[in-house]
Amino acid sequence: MPELPEVEIVRLFLTPSLKNKTIVDLKILTQKSFSGQTKKLIGQKITRLSRHGKQLSIHLSNHHILLVHLKMTGQLIYQDRHQKTILGHATPTLNQKTLPNRSTRLVFTFSDGSNLFFNDQRKFGWVRLLTISQVKQFQSTLGPDLLSPQFTPTYFYRQLQLSSRPVKSLLHDQSRFAGIGNIYANDALFLAKIHPLTPANQISLYKSRLLHLHLLDIINQSIQVGGSTARDNQYPRPATAGVHPDGTPGDNQYNFRVYQRAGDPCLLCSTPITRLKISGRSTFFCPHCQKPLK
DNA sequence: TGCCCCCTGCAG
DNA sequence: CTGCAGGGGGCA
Q: Residue A225: exposed, middle, or buried by beta-carbon count in 10 A (0-12, 13-18, 19+)?
């Protein structure tokens, strides 16, 4: 599900609840969702949460890390000891729902009786207990996080210069820049007025800077409004992913410029938004505003 | 560098 | 029923 802004929202929401909590139990309801030795988890205290791209690190006092990838439908939901789930205004029916439910894969219990649920309808996501060096090795294949100082306009342009692949598929490449997914790739290309099939190395320095600017802009803007909540997560359908740990949906979906708007009028020129597949993923763009290079 | 695949569930 | 969904690993 989540791209960088959604994972960042999870980190921001969970940090106050999880910090200094001591893990006393882990129940594994779906084996493939977890790897690592459970006994290295018990009795450990959570020190902090960090994020690289779409991966969330829950740091433990024994210098191990719970590395979390939510993939398409993963969710982390925190409940206090009274099992009171603090759910958002837009999802009133969820107040009646009890956890664990059919999508619950893991349940972490803390010494104060509170719980952290890892829900994941499609089972693509995972939680892995790793040492710090294992995490470093694992993340060595990731490019710089979009919100890190290393993600400079110069670095971005240099990466684009290195490939003749369609710029859209390059944006998805986590080994170059970590955090961009389908929503933000589509919308940033629209804002920069770049056709998604444009060979990356044919993009001018000017356009590259514009794209870099819009990427950072829409990501920061999305974080400001609580990230995107997918259509299939909105009330009254059951929540899966893209919902905050307290159940509140984000609001960025109301800002989608082209993503999931096939056939709808372009916000700038009213031309119907076109949809096509690029490396297996739905791609949305305005054929008038985003002309291919000649 | 594209494809198929991992899964579940919903819309058409 | 088919196609589609915020991801990405493995494989020619």
A: middle
